[in-house]
Specification:
The chain starts with a helix and ends with a helix. Helix 4 runs parallel beside helix 10. The protein is of the alpha/beta class. Strand 14 and strand 15 form a beta hairpin. Bound molecules: pyridoxal-5'-phosphate (PLP). The site of pyridoxal-5'-phosphate has 15 residues, from helix 5.
Length: about 425
């Protein structure tokens, strides 16, 4: 079936809220390239929104999944466990920098990991509230939707949110929120609404993902750690987007040296197989009763096999080193664009988690979401998949595979440069 025929099916049978606006259908993919159902090649700078740090169909991951398919596809691990689940738990316990000895529960998606982290925090503390941040994004289930620090499009149509989620500002000096103000906001939230004696956890992305690719300063993360300890709250770090090499370290929190009580992860953990994890200090993770966590598919054998192979590939192929080099390269190129183009501003990166903003002018820094949208549309016409994000919709973010070949990277960056030239007239 070609794109047009598949589009007709989509319009007739897929729920409007779930239907992709993209009219190209992926047919085949390899590393940083995808071919659509009409055979058109696209360069992929989105990586399925940060899932493909190792590229489409990394050979070692594909091999591990195929081998697992010939053994066991499903038992439901609560009915009968299997090696992959416990081996992956051991691996994650060894590499995830939570306080003390880490224990693990596996789930299917980022949102499901966050839901479980909140459940575990409630069980461990006997308290109910959570504090999240402006611009944060944690998922589309009912509770994670409430945790998101942005209404549209996630929560617009879905009525009242659970009342135990409170919000503090995220420090983004470029958009007028200093670190001091953010800290003051958090302290005020604890005074005005979220009584510390009822508050189980503070949940933060060390780099805002959907919210615009802004890293939290180390000093801010350290302060959160201190405040959590002072009030008997847990610090939960959401690394669903920033994890598994996306910032040049295995996890973004490692740039700060802060050890959280729990971490959530998904996306690039298994190179595209659906799996997520909550990793936390053993005492915290063991605080809920037997059979209180899990689900039919959580930590499926094939997804565990993929995750183990993906983590091994990350270690064996110097993905962290390659990511740092990629981040530097991107920053250099974006800085040139910032000098060259009047609407490119605020170039930044933490490793290859890199971004810039489209603005009306670099004097006012006024966000220009329309221009960002026009850039994304133009590059798509020229064969490049690129994403925008941010509270103001004007951040251009980069989530290409870290394994991208130099020539493909250059070709993609060339498409952006040419499009910026055209947009600047
Ligand atoms: C930081 C963060 N947390 C949670 C999620 C939700 O993950 P999922 O879409 O797998 O439910 C996302 C997804 O983009 C994310 O970026």
């Amino acid at each position: 079936m070609n794109n047009e025929q598949l589009q007709a099916l989509k319009e007739k049978y897929v729920a409007a809220g779930a239907a992709s606006p993209n009219q190209q259908f992926a047919d085949y993919a390899r590393n940083a390239e995808v071919w659509d159902a009409d055979g058109r090649r696209m360069i992929d700078f989105a990586g399925g929104i940060g899932v493909l740090n190792l590229g489409h169909r990394h050979p070692k991951v594909v091999e591990a999944v195929k081998a697992q398919l010939d053994k066991v596809m499903h038992t439901c691990q609560t009915v009968m466990p299997y090696a992959g689940y416990v081996q992956l738990a051991e691996k994650l316990s060894n590499i995830v920098p939570v306080r003390g000895h880490g224990k693990v529960m596996l789930a299917n998606s980022g949102a499901e990991a966050l839901e479980n982290a909140v459940k575990i925090a409630r069980a461990a503390t006997g308290k109910s509230n959570v504090i999240c941040f402006d611009g944060g994004y944690h998922g589309r289930t009912l509770y994670t939707m409430a945790m998101n620090g942005k209404v549209a499009p996630y929560a617009t149509d879905f009525g009242p949110m659970p009342g135990t989620v409170f919000r503090a500002p995220y420090p983004v000096p470029y958009h007028g929120v200093s670190e001091d103000e953010a800290l003051r906001g958090l302290k005020m939230a604890l005074k005005t609404d979220a009584n510390p004696k009822d508050t189980a956890a503070v949940i933060i992305e060390p780099v805002l993902g959907e919210g615009g690719f802004y890293p939290a300063p180390t000093s801010f993360l350290k302060k959160i750690r201190e405040i959590c300890d002072e009030h008997g709250m847990l610090m939960i770090v959401d690394e669903v987007q920033s994890g598994f090499g996306r910032t040049g370290k295995l996890f973004a929190i490692q740039h700060s040296g802060v050890e959280p009580d729990m971490m959530t992860m998904a996306k690039s953990m298994a190179d595209g197989m659906p799996i997520s994890a909550v990793v936390g200090t053993d005492k915290v993770m063991d605080s809920s009763g037997p059979n209180s966590l899990g689900g039919t598919y959580t930590g499926s054998p094939t997804a565990c096999a993929a995750a183990l192979a993906a983590i091994q590939a990350l270690e064996e192929e110097d993905i962290l080193g390659k990511g740092q080099a990629l981040g530097e390269k991107l920053n250099k190129r974006f800085s040139q664009w910032q000098e060259q183009f009047a609407h490119v501003d605020n170039v930044r990166n933490l490793g290859p988690m890199a971004a810039f903003e489209m603005v009306k002018s670099t004097e006012s820094h006024e966000p220009d979401a329309e221009m960002a949208g026009a850039l994304v549309k133009k590059v798509k016409e020229k064969g490049l998949i690129l994403l925008s994000c941010g509270m103001y919709g004007n951040t251009i973010r980069f989530l290409m595979p870290i394994t991208i070949e130099d020539e493909v990277l250059e070709e993609g960056l060339g498409i952006i440069e040419e499009s910026l030239k055209e947009l600047h007239g």
